[in-house]
Automatic annotation (TrEMBL):
GO molecular function: ATP binding; ATP hydrolysis activity
Protein family according to the UniProt entry: Belongs to the ABC transporter superfamily.
Protein name per its UniProtKB record: ABC transporter ATP-binding protein
Organism: Xanthobacter flavus
Source lineage: Bacteria, Pseudomonadati, Pseudomonadota, Alphaproteobacteria, Hyphomicrobiales
Swiss-Prot/TrEMBL keywords: ATP-binding, Nucleotide-binding
Listed Pfam families: ABC_tran
Annotated ABC transporter domain residues: 15-242
Amino acid sequence: MSTAAAPAPDPDVVIEVEGLSKSFGGHRVVDNFTMRVRRGQIYGFLGPNGSGKTTTIRMLCGLLTPDAGRGTCLGMDILTESRAIREHVGYMTQRFSLYQDLSVRENLEFVARLYGVPQPEAAASAALQRLGLEGRGKQLAGALSGGWKQRLALGACILPGPDLLLLDEPTAGVDPQARREFWEQIHDLAAEGLTVLVSTHYMDEAERCHEIAYIAYGKLLAQGTVQSVIAAAGLTTVTVEVRGEAGQEAGRLARDLARDLSQRAGVDMVAPFGTALHISGRDAAALEAALAPFRSDERLAFRADAPTLEDVFIDLMRRSKDEMR
Ligand SMILES: Nc1ncnc2c1ncn2[C@@H]1O[C@H](COP(=O)(O)OP(=O)(O)OP(=O)(O)O)[C@@H](O)[C@H]1O
């Protein structure tokens, strides 16, 4: 008889789930989702609207019960210990859910009291300082700009000291500077050991994550570091630039070329950027054959390019749409 005990759970694994599925009204919104997240990771969820990102994230944290599948979050069972899991999760939803007619400080003190944080006033002061909100303590939350509101919402989320942070499109509609500052905070928190799951539609934010998952129509289509997701897609990309001044003439040439190329075998995507075209294909030889007739055109400059994450996601989405047809 074997005496080998089951391996002890790895304390650095915060989420480990397999085969999670969920349907609403007979429609499968998440289909057989499996993943593992390590402590201190910033894990990004990307995918088209309504593809099941929020539903997936909520199941991972025990906030929603899956129809099928199993797993643990923070070492606890997502099916039987969801209440205990919730006590350790900070959840920032898409909607600003603090009191608009309370001041910044009052909101933070309220949250501290609600969660039984010791010395709520001191905890609120610490949160104000940490988030660079000291000068705004007396300001009404409703009077803050979008970026500051998000910062306050983040402060309220981390005040009870969660081990896992769930951010659902936290920076939608926030300007680039405020988004950058918000992400600096997220990285600081992760460096201190907080694990972060974040859904976003911004490619630059995806690139700030340690790992990403791309979900479309309920299915996990890609997972890993940004570099590995791009490499696994196997896309070849070429940029074609119309030489000379950007004007109507150049614009027309780029548009006609885009129309022509997008009809050709070997060309899977054509995306205009000013008077340049970003052209991608999964079969490098077929792509080159499609471009060959244009290479001698002196009005055009060709250069091999690296595919971007956006190229990869659009390609994945198209492919999954085709498969569903
Ligand atoms: N409680 C619910 N009851 C019924 N349908 C739901 C429920 N929650 C989500 N859905 C549906 O499930 C699908 C996936 O929704 P989900 O919010 O997970 O997508 P998402 O990828 O987060 O979308 P977005 O990027 O727009 O936020 C949508 O069609 C949505 O309408």
